[in-house]
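Issue 218. Parser rejects a valid record. Input:
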Amino acid sequence: MISWSDGGMNRIFVFVSVGAIFGLAMACGMSEGDGGFFPPVDGLSTRGEAELYDSETLFEYINGAAESYLAYGFEELTVQSYEEDGEVVLAVDVYRHRDGVHAFGIYCQERPDEGRFVDVGTEGYYQSGVINFFKGRYYVKMLNYRQLDDERDELVALAGRLAARLDGETGFPRALDLLPQSDRIPHSERFIARDFLGHEFLHSAFVADYLIKGARSQIFLLAPGNAAAGREMLNAYKAYAEGKSEVVTSAEGTISFVDPYYRSNGTLRLADLDGAVLGIFGVDADTFDSAKEEVRTAMEATDLPL
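Output the parser choked on:
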């Protein structure tokens, strides 16, 4: 899914159906249950067996944050602590999610807007004492308590060794390929699992930020699962606007109205593209038509089920 965060932006989104793109098969005899994917660390020893948490017990480890993880198809967490002289100095959490799209989504929820990005897994970032990354259906969080002269390099190297032990492909969700490549702001892609735009009937949204004609914009893709579900979301959105006494106009396959939640963003234009729905806030008709044709072309070229 895709979501909206900044109230003053022009925003563009598309409803489409996109299947899951990542699978799971543990290689080399390693499994979540024995924590076999945790690499050895020079000078450190593991503290006991890896701890396992499932959807019923996750709150015991991350308490209030558990609901967010469950919304992104969480399946299992494996935690391994490393110690030095009897003290824990490194903790590694490996979250397994339903598929790569949802692992990407929870990673995006915690990724900073302007991170120090590192080449680990599909994408990762470093902050003092922390490296987080995702690969396939896994989201990994590493927390270091040691004093290291070259902390970033050492943590990146360790994260790389761990990533190599995790099965699955590197790569972003393919639904993002339907979004324009030009003018895209690097590392801005996100996936929002539910309550897109604050509406419970909008879900499964992909988004990337853009700088278009000097203004920051967002292009969205909502992937409800099939064309009928896309049209259902569109109709629900239209009904919501009408229920709020907003004027809804229709012309040549395009509908437009003002979303009361985002009145400052101007008129929202929507077009049904054979089950996929393109929408843009606060742009003129020419900009809308141009975006519509670009998305239509990308849709025609893809083998994703729309």
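Fixed in the parser; the record now loads. The helical segments are 59-62, 66-71, 100-110, 151-165, 227-243, 285-301.
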